[in-house]
Amino acid sequence: AVPLWVCARTAAERLRHAPNRVLLAMFLVHYAQRSLIFPFLIRGGKPMPLYTCTLAFMFCVYNGYLQSRYLSQYAVYADDWVTDPRFLVGFCLWLIGMLINIHSDHILRNLRKPGETGYKIPRGGLFEYVTAANYFGEVVEWCGYALASWSIQGGAFAAFTFCI
């Protein structure tokens, strides 16, 4: 919601340029999937500590503001930036990372049958190669976004995602 609020409340003059719109769309597509689709697919789950939820909320609010404000007000890209190899490779990495993340979440959601509570080891997809394929997908996604945006803001987001 924060990126949409920023763009509605300010003269988002930089969004007249295709590269800025595409980069903001990449950000918004991820969070639409993460906040509007993903929660309706999970069944049950364990309670989350309020402290963790508060920190995640603060990170998302600040990062949403930072990314949207930068792309709508300050980021200057040539109109042909969307054909630059950095953008193209970054966009492909972002898409691959998002698909890895969605597929890995699907595997995790279907680990247990209804009523089961025991520990299960995820199998399939990239879980055959990495322990937390869902997080790996998220890191690949935001590294791709950082490359596509070629910005300190995108790089910081990728670095913090990796650290988290």
UniProtKB/TrEMBL annotation:
<feature type="transmembrane region" description="Helical">
    <location>
        <begin position="49"/>
        <end position="66"/>
    </location>
</feature>
<keyword id="KW-1133">Transmembrane helix</keyword>
<dbReference type="InterPro" id="IPR039357">
    <property type="entry name" value="SRD5A/TECR"/>
</dbReference>
<dbReference type="GO" id="GO:0006702">
    <property type="term" value="P:androgen biosynthetic process"/>
</dbReference>
<keyword id="KW-0472">Membrane</keyword>
<dbReference type="GO" id="GO:0005789">
    <property type="term" value="C:endoplasmic reticulum membrane"/>
</dbReference>
<keyword id="KW-0812">Transmembrane</keyword>
<dbReference type="InterPro" id="IPR001104">
    <property type="entry name" value="3-oxo-5_a-steroid_4-DH_C"/>
</dbReference>
<keyword id="KW-0521">NADP</keyword>
<keyword id="KW-0256">Endoplasmic reticulum</keyword>
<dbReference type="GO" id="GO:0047751">
    <property type="term" value="F:3-oxo-5-alpha-steroid 4-dehydrogenase (NADP+) activity"/>
</dbReference>
<comment type="similarity">
    <text>Belongs to the steroid 5-alpha reductase family.</text>
</comment>
<keyword id="KW-0221">Differentiation</keyword>
<keyword id="KW-0492">Microsome</keyword>
<keyword id="KW-0726">Sexual differentiation</keyword>
<dbReference type="Pfam" id="PF02544">
    <property type="entry name" value="Steroid_dh"/>
</dbReference>
<dbReference type="GO" id="GO:0007548">
    <property type="term" value="P:sex differentiation"/>
</dbReference>
<protein>
    <recommendedName>
        <fullName>3-oxo-5alpha-steroid 4-dehydrogenase (NADP(+))</fullName>
        <ecNumber>1.3.1.22</ecNumber>
    </recommendedName>
</protein>
<dbReference type="GO" id="GO:0030154">
    <property type="term" value="P:cell differentiation"/>
</dbReference>
<feature type="domain" description="3-oxo-5-alpha-steroid 4-dehydrogenase C-terminal">
    <location>
        <begin position="47"/>
        <end position="163"/>
    </location>
</feature>
<keyword id="KW-0443">Lipid metabolism</keyword>
<feature type="transmembrane region" description="Helical">
    <location>
        <begin position="22"/>
        <end position="42"/>
    </location>
</feature>
<keyword id="KW-0560">Oxidoreductase</keyword>
<feature type="transmembrane region" description="Helical">
    <location>
        <begin position="86"/>
        <end position="103"/>
    </location>
</feature>
